[in-house]
Amino acid sequence: GPSSECNMNKINLEELTSDTGLLFEVDKGENTYAAEDNITEDTFNLVYSRLDTEIACLNFDQLMKTMQDISGSGGVFKETKHPGYGPGITENSVVEVHYAGFFEYRDEPFDSSRLRDETFKYRVGSGKAIPGWEIALLTMKKGEISWFLIQPEYGFQETGCPPRVPRNATALFEIEILSISDHVNVGDFFLMSEEERYAVTFESICQLVGTYKQEGYTFFKQNHFQKAVQKYNKVSSTVFFLICCSGWSALDSLRLLL
């Protein structure tokens, strides 16, 4: 199995609210999901009609006894719900997943890619996810659906992120692997290392920024303001990289904002 050693640094709260942070978005309102995302009760029930009856009454201590310890230290446990196929995930793999995260005795997820109707892409080994996810993903294959019980020291640490994530919270994640790739392309710009970003041509970056701007405008017109802001943030972050970290002139870079 994968190594039980992982980065146990304290959570950076700024990362918790970032676009590429620790797997959930902090909501400043009372509702778990913003009204602008147009998530209706019918949608919620359709997506989680299978899960809610299973998870609502789960005792995590009892569940743990039926699962496999994949961390070797009692920090991350796994139960395969649907086996995958083909080669397994490795370090530096780019994976596209659907996932949902639950706390004990709560039938509503604290985070869900399906309820946002948006898959999540992640580069394994980048260290931008909670440590338990790094361990979990390295045990999976394409098409697999598995449950992972992640203890606080491998998850959101002792502090959590109240009120969304309680202190010392053990989390149950269901993860489904949709695709696995061994390389990154320009569309995965924010999953690239700094060295890989340097190798991307200016023309390719212009096309990428144009795509972000168009997607942001589309979300804005549809009143999906949070998603629009995320796209526009990617535009500004890309331009910032060009100005500060590449050889392109500030003038050429700033033209991308227009």
Quick structural overview:
The chain has 258 residues and is of the alpha+beta class. The protein has helices spanning 13-16, 41-48, 51-55, 60-65, 131-137, 194-198, 202-221, 225-245, 250-254, and strands spanning 68-69, 76-82, 85-88, 94-103, 111-112, 120-123, 141-142, 145-150, 171-181.
CA-CA gap between termini: 50 Å
Number of domains: 2
Uncertain residue ranges = 1-39
> What does the average pLDDT come to?
77
| CATH C-level label of the largest domain | Alpha Beta
SS-based class: alpha+beta
Tell me what the structure shows:
By secondary structure, the chain is an alpha+beta fold. The protein folds into two domains: 41-181, Chitinase A, domain 3 (Roll), CATH 3.10.50; 186-255. The chain is built from nine helices and nine strands. Strands 1, 2, 4, 5, 6, 8 and 9 form a seven-stranded antiparallel sheet that branches. Strands 3-7 form a two-stranded antiparallel sheet. 30% of the residues are buried. Mean pLDDT is 77; it is low at 1-39.
Core attributes:
two-stranded antiparallel ribbon; 258 residues; globular; 31% helix; repeat; disordered N terminus; Chitinase A, domain 3; seven-stranded antiparallel β-sheet; rotamase; EC 5.2.1.8; alpha+beta
Topology:
Blueprint: H1 13-16, H2 41-48, H3 51-55, H4 60-65, E1 68-69, E2 76-82, E3 85-88, E4 94-103, E5 111-112, E6 120-123, H5 131-137, E7 141-142, E8 145-150, E9 171-181, H6 194-198, H7 202-221, H8 225-245, H9 250-254
Antiparallel strand pairs: 1-2, 2-8, 3-7, 4-5, 4-6, 4-9, 8-9
Helix pairs in contact: 7-8
Enzyme class: isomerase
Catalytic activity: [protein]-peptidylproline (omega=180) = [protein]-peptidylproline (omega=0)
GO cellular component, one term: cytoplasm
